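Box 4.2: Ligand-aware structure prediction
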Amino acid sequence: MIQKSMAISPEGKLRFGGADVEALARKYGTPLYILDEGRLVENMRAFVRGAEAAFGRDTLVTYASKAMCFKALYPILEREGLGADVVSGGELYTARQAGFPMNRVHFHGTYKEDWEIDMALQAGVHSLIADGEYDLENIARRGRVAGILAPVMLRITPGIDPHTFAAVNTGMECQFGRPLETGQAMEFVKTALKQPGVRVLGLHCHIGSQIFEEGPFALAAEKMLNFCRQILDETGWSPEYLALGGGFGVRYRESDPECSVEHMLRGLGETVRRLCREKGVPQPKIILEPGRSIVADAGMTLYTAGAVKQIAGGRNYVIVNGGMTDNPRYALYKAPYTVYNASRMTGEDLETYTVAGRCCESGALIQENVRLPRVQGGDFIAVACTGAYNYAMASNYNRVPRLPVVLVKDGADRLAVRRETLEDLLKCDI
Ligand SMILES: Cc1ncc(COP(=O)(O)O)c(C=O)c1O
């Protein structure tokens, strides 16, 4: 099976993180997100240990909260020695309410409201990532109002194509940061170094998501370290920190390559050390921002199958009791997932299905051309590796309440996020 957390019971049913998923369905209802805490911790440790081995003890691994954000995640991150990056006041508030140490938090965002900047400064975050001159000026202005010298890092677009989905490619021309090739990145750095009210701690880049090879990261490091050399020559300044972003690949299907974090980081560590030596720049403290690769393969979604509809001469649809409200990624960019019939894992009567959600859009599919042991209404359908950008992107379209999140660990379960109620749906209506 695609996830290490999955196993099949002697009765041919799916188990996840040591728990019987049908028992979880009876206890918490479906649809349901299930997250294996054991796998989460394994993923966190792979990054922390890999980064320390590659870059030394000053490295920071900051989990990208946008991948999945809820309170119970932050004590686990803290225990495992990670930081967190947040991209909104909402994510910052969640981490803060969970008691997460704010000096391990980086605050991102292309548009930061004044109240969000104030909140980040008052909380004492490690740094705010300035997305450009306008953002920098706002951060400096709010810092002056608060009497706080604002710690910032500067977002740079290095101009790298990591060959991933266009929607998640951020290394080429896009709305994030300031570009290297046009010279605007250098202007940005010079402006920031002269900007009263801020302390420039470092540079930041993020080239995209679902990257399976070291190559694009090494190229980003090379471009950024060349840039560091240029900055040193022109200004005498060297960044204390260099953030290389997230984007490490996750296997969603058997046909996807394996992505060994340890191996990739080892190679990247060697590249960074060599480049710093060759270019004569002091080695900055490296920051990594994995999101997807921490949570995706620790999570799955469990649905109940309703109607199974055969269109004469056409497709076989199985309709499940969730869909684009809890996982919009197929509707958005045809993101691939592996689907199982959790009630009949070993059946040999395979059929081809289009798994459709309950929302009122013909594009509201979860996956097409899925081979499953014959599905009957009432079977449980599992969608694998949904820990990242599913709960985080969930909506109330069709006024469907959001799903609960259950954490499992060695067979024991605990509720981390409760299911939304109908009353929750009305709580902002006047
Ligand atoms: C600045 C930044 N850092 C980190 C990430 C996390 O990327 P991933 O979840 O692919 O690791 C993102 C994702 O969009 C990002 O924009």
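In the box above, the bound molecule is pyridoxal-5'-phosphate. The chain has two domains: 6-36+297-426, 108-290.
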